[in-house]
Amino acid sequence: MVPDLATERSDPPSPKRQKTEEETTCYDGRPEDFDSDECTDEDMQLFDQELDMIGGGFEIDFKKFRYCFGWRPLDLDDSTMVDEPETNRDFIATLANLALTKYNADKGTSLELGKILIANFHPSCAVTFYISFQVNDPSDGNQTKPYRAVVRYFPGDIEVVSCNPKY
Asked: Where do Basic and acidic residues bias regions lie (predicted)?
């Protein structure tokens, strides 16, 4: 029997505190040159339109916005979420594998994780990761296919929210 990964407790690496303001380009969702704590209705509308256009928190073009509403891109080759020598890419691969394992169990497939492409995140009481990745499909000549997963990381708990092909 395959365990229900959406509710199963896991012990992957724990995301560590983000780098300081000087080390990031978007601190608390605001670019460094943002001189107000308030955003405009237009800022909110533009960001909402971007989320609608791209189908959620995946592949956001952060350069378009002066206010990011707490959303951040994750540098996959850095170690902001984990302790070195592990990288953020390793951590995100662990989360993507959990999501893919659940997807395979639910759909009766045997997809394998290929390459992690991009990850964005939004912190709140949990950190929600929006992961874009490639899978290899052994049932289809090992063809590479794009997938997306949403995974919430709570302290001591991981919840797979979704894992689906990118359409």
From this structure: 1-11
